[in-house]
Every structure is written in C-alpha cells, then in structure tokens.
C-alpha cells in the first residue's frame, strides 16, 4: 500500500552513481568553521563542511541509497516532483495522492537506514538545545530539478529546527515570508553550506529555483543533493495528551 503513487524506475540505482574524488590536500591540515550570516532569520554557514568531510558524507549517502533508493514522489494533486528523494532515520518523508506525511518505512517496505554520525554530530553542534533528529531527507536535484516555494510543516513539533546541508552543484535558494507571496531574497547555496531554519523563521516559505549544473565536481554526475534533518514526532507532553494520558 505504501507503494501507491510512487514511481520507482528500475534503473534508479544505475543513474545514481556518485563519484569519490580525492579530498583536497589542504583540507587535512585544518578547516575553519565559518560564522553564520543571518538572512531573514535563517542561519547560513558558507562552507561549513570541508572538502574532505563532503567526500566522506557522499560515501555514507551512497550506502543509504543502496538500502533506500531514490523515488519520485507525487504531489497530492498528482504531479510528479522533479526532485527525487529518500530518507534516513526513524521516519522518512513521502508524498502521494493521499498527501504529504512521514512514514516509518521506505515505499519498498524496508526500514530507513540510520542517519550518518557526521550529520547527527553537525546537528548537535549547531542546534544543541534541540531534540535529536528523527529524519534526514535526501533530495536529489538533477540539472533540471527545482522545488516550488513551500513551508516545512509536516513535522509534529514545529518548535524544533530544520538543518539543511548542500552537496554538489550550486542551487539558487529563495527565502520568502511566513505567508505565501511578498518580497523574497535569493542566495546561491554551494557544496558544504549549511542552513539552520529555526524559531520564528522555521515556517518561512522557501524553495529552489534552479541548479547550476557543473559548478561542483563532488558528485560524478551533474546535480545536487540537499539533506534536511528534522524532528518528526510531537513533543512528549503533546503525545501524552493525545493518548488521553492524564498522569
Ligand atoms: C527543502 O526545502 O526541503 C530543500 C531545500 C534545499 O534543497 O535547499
Ligand atoms: Fe523545505
């Protein structure tokens, strides 16, 4: 039943072949973590991950993709999204004609693979007050893919941040307002950049207008991976109320 509404091309695995270029030598010497730039309440860290860390992370993602291949979600209105997706963690995001939601298993029926430790460490460093991440969405953008303006509001505890990691080709990322429409600001997200969406900005509309294919050599093929870690379940107090637990 979970398979309903998904297109899972047979050749998906073959088309998702990320390379493993040698890490930049200078990287081994040391990498300075950047200070954030604040844009409409989003914390933007340019070049948070070193080249070496990015290469290691791509290797982790390759393992995830073997266990949990990319699929092409369909929106509730029936359109096929241009971004292909999968997830790691206890939950994974999915969408089909029944709507957007988090599911405990991949559409193929297997558990989602664990979130790579380098990502949970990044979360702990950047959002130390937050609950642990329960999912890491992996979005794969081919050169023509984009993502319309949307809010991230399928999670059960919107007080918790979303932490986004970009890998591969550059993406033109647009940040809007708390309601649809109005003036927006755009910035290019590059490989190794990290964005924290939190607090009042957590519900800002945002999207990806386009990918600049060929601007990074991290992935063997042109394209971009965006990872977003999130907390999915409601806060415990809300869960208990929901279950009618008066204790
Ligand atoms: C998202 O909004 O889920 C993805 C953002 C991005 O690709 O940078
Ligand atoms: Fe989003």
TrEMBL record:
SUPFAM superfamilies, per database record: Clavaminate synthase-like
Molecular function in Gene Ontology: dioxygenase activity
Ranges for domain Fe2OG dioxygenase: 132-233
InterPro entries: Alkb, AlkB-like, AlkB-like_sf, Oxoglu/Fe-dep_dioxygenase_dom
Gene3D superfamilies reported for this sequence: Alpha-ketoglutarate-dependent dioxygenase AlkB-like
Keywords assigned by UniProt, alphabetized: Dioxygenase, Iron, Metal-binding, Oxidoreductase
PROSITE patterns: FE2OG_OXY (PS51471)
Span list, region Disordered: 1-30
Keyword 4Fe-4S: no
Cofactor(s) needed by this chain: Fe(2+)
Protein name: Alpha-ketoglutarate-dependent dioxygenase AlkB
UniProt xrefs under Pfam families: 2OG-FeII_Oxy_2 (PF13532)
